[in-house]
Amino acid sequence: MAQRILVTGAAGYIGCILIPDLLREGHQVIALDTYNRNDTVLAQLCADPNFEPVRGDARDESVMKSLVARADVVIPLAALVGAPLCKQDPIGAVTTNLDAVRLAVKLLSPSQRIVYPTTNSGYGVGTKGEMCTEETPLNPISLYGTTKCDAEKAVLDNGNGITLRLATVFGMAPRMRVDLLVNDFTYRAVTDRAVVIFEGNFKRNYIHVRDVSKAFRHMLANYDKLNNNAFNVGLSDANLSKLELCERIKRFIPEFSYLESPIGEDPDKRDYIVSNAKIEASGWSPDHSLDAGIQELIRGYRMIRNSKFSNV
After folding, report:
1. Residue 293 in contact with residue 208, Cβ under 8 Å?
2. CA nearest 13: which of 310, 304, 292, 219?
3. Is the distance from CB of 252 to CB of 292 less than 8 angstroms?
4. Which of 198, 200, 284, 312 is deepest in the core (most CB within 10 A)?
């Protein structure tokens, strides 16, 4: 069933993949963004009459009130993503990642729906060898993780919402993020042929950006059945340490060298493995493997040779 969907942070890394998919499925999309990068990642969508870009801020109640009133579904993508960026701008992190989501929830009527992307970085440091499930207590260790977990609580406490605890996302997109771990290490392999790793045994889970879009669309299609739940979204065969990730990249770039530094530390202390059994049991499955994503990135990095495609 076609719906009118409000997407905030529409011109970001996930939004520029998700919104074309929503339009192809026949939905109407209100695409709210500050558009302050003045780029054209959504420009090709302007030919579609179901696409409505709106320049504005998801923290502005006067803007959100009128847009939410017109929507069947709200997807709040607007966020300061990642621990380094949130540390740089803590006020922006709280107001965008948390306050704006609370505002959206407050403006929703009981008949309206919300699908919110949080992060499995909320698990912080997991118990060695134990999978984090949706029942595992959240233990965020950064401002980014804290704001996203608190926003998730606001959505679920409302009694009418779904949250997606996304693994570390990878893959090419019109609004690229080179600073994400798989994207970053592959970029370094392509451009520098080398990387120095800190705390290389720290593990995390990974997911392709197009499979994130697929997860959102799966929730929209099955909302009544899956409502009021959190779901981990990642590749079940990709709970990998940094060293294991480098080993995978080296399969496709044999000259890539990586070295774990005996001194120094990674400011991002996340270390956990994740079970994605719950979302898989609901009928969702990923289409893009980690290996396919690395090969995709290698092709993409033949075109990209600068660092503007990051959040920091």
Report:
1. yes
2. 310
3. no
4. 284
157: burial class by Cβ within 10 Å (0-12, 13-18, 19+)?
A: exposed
Beta strands in 228-297 (DSSP E): 229-233, 239-241, 257-260, 273-274
Please state which of the four CATH numbers 3.30.1490.20, 3.30.360.10, 3.90.25.10, 3.10.320.10 is assigned to the domain occupying 181-203+237-300: 3.90.25.10
CA gap 121, 146 in Å, rounded: 9
- 246-253: list long-range contacts, CB under 8 Å, 24+ apart: 246/185, 246/189, 246/195, 246/197, 246/200, 248/290, 248/291, 248/294, 249/185, 249/186, 249/189, 249/294, 250/189, 251/291, 252/291, 252/294, 252/295, 252/298, 253/189, 253/190, 253/193, 253/298
**CA 44 – CA 275 distance, rounded (Å):** 37
Q: Give the mean pLDDT per block of 10 residues along the chain (312 residues).
A: 96 98 98 94 98 98 98 98 93 98 98 96 88 95 95 96 98 96 97 93 96 98 98 98 97 97 76 96 98 98 75 60
Q: Does domain 4-170+206-233 have CATH number 3.40.50.720?
A: yes
Are 239 and 205 a contacting pair, CB within 8 Å? yes
Instruction: Find the helix or strand (DSSP H, E) in which 245 lies.
Output: helix 242-250
| Structure token digits, residue 216 | 């959102």
Helix (H) or strand (E) holding 42: none
Phi, psi of 274 (to 5 degrees): -130, 140
Q: What is the pLDDT of residue 312?
A: 55
